[in-house]
Specification:
308 residues
């Protein structure tokens, strides 16, 4: 091996180990300064866009799966679902993940229903960590229910219909699926009296974990796999083999996967054989309406349409 090839291999090795903590912790550091600025949402949107761009570049420098660099014809639909699910306001701000943050501001009148149990005197880092754990309980069960109950799977299948994972299809969710997750994860925080900044930080953690779990980057996440939802764990979750796919439901952390026996992290490369048995409609509007028709549900499940 020549000196140049050795240097390239060494650089790839270093990037593989540094890329996950680099994107996650630099993103949160940027969020800290962004939230302290005069325009916190705009600042966060810019930081998030920078993280997406960095991952997009890393996907081309150290891809996990070369096949996933090829176009699948779903990019426009992926972007459209992200925009619809997260809100048109974020598109203008170049940030498709701040809907929960904006919703928190709009729903502050619900304060009258709160029980004021939130430990507002704690340092913000501990408040944010508590919010992540509380929200994760709802996210875990919303996600698990979406896999185990047909009514919810019909909406969640859209997310699992992808045949490649990359940073752009992170937000490919049916709007009903997203609303269900937001309800189960955020209503407890509202009722406990969590302040607006806590929702900002929860949104920031979810945003950066989200793009990291879907990125097609050969990341070596090591001990992070036992705490956070990482790309390695999430690739298993997208496996066509349901023994592998019905695992790792954690959105941000894997605490409840560990507690409820759904944590899956075998000592081998995670799956690249991803997708669903059924068929998702080809167009954006059709993908939104498909779960509401009998034939559409049968398509999602991979069943032949009934002859009338």
């Amino acid at each position: 091996m020549t000196l140049t090839l050795k240097a390239a291999a060494a650089a790839r090795y270093i990037l593989a180990y540094l890329s996950w903590p680099l994107v996650f912790f630099s993103g949160l550091t940027g969020a800290y300064f962004g939230f302290a600025s005069g325009h916190p949402m705009v600042a966060f949107a810019a930081i998030y866009a920078g993280a997406v761009l960095l991952l997009f570049l890393l996907e081309r420098i150290i891809p996990y799966e070369e096949r996933w660099l090829q176009a699948d014809g779903e990019t426009a639909n992926d972007i459209a679902h992200t925009v619809l699910t997260k809100g048109l306001v974020e598109l203008a701000a170049l940030a498709g993940v701040i809907f929960p943050m904006l919703a928190a501001a709009l729903l502050q009148p619900l304060a009258a229903m709160q029980f004021s149990l939130w430990p507002a005197s704690w340092p913000m880092i501990f408040q944010a960590a508590l919010a992540v754990v509380i929200a994760e309980f709802g996210l875990y069960w919303a996600h698990r229910i979406a896999h185990e109950r047909l009514f919810f799977w019909r909406f969640h299948a859209l997310h699992h219909s992808v045949t490649r994972l990359w940073v752009i299809n992170t937000g490919r969710f049916h709007v009903i699926d997203s609303l269900f997750k937001i309800a189960l994860s955020q209503i407890p925080l509202y009722l406990l009296g969590a302040p607006l900044q806590v929702f900002w930080w929860l949104g920031a953690v979810t945003a950066f974990i989200g793009i990291l779990t879907h990125c097609n980057v050969d990341m070596r996440t090591g001990l992070f796999d036992f705490v956070f939802s990482t790309p390695r764990l999430h690739r298993w979750h997208h496996s066509k083999d349901l023994r592998e796919g019905n695992t790792n439901y954690g959105e941000n952390v894997v605490l409840f996967d560990q507690l409820f026996g759904t944590y899956f992290n075998p000592d081998r490369p995670s799956s690249t054989d991803i997708g669903i048995k059924g068929q998702i409609a080809p167009g954006f509007v059709s993908q939104l309406t498909q779960p509401f028709t009998k034939d559409g549900v049968r398509q999602i499940l991979g069943l032949k349409p009934k002859r009338g």
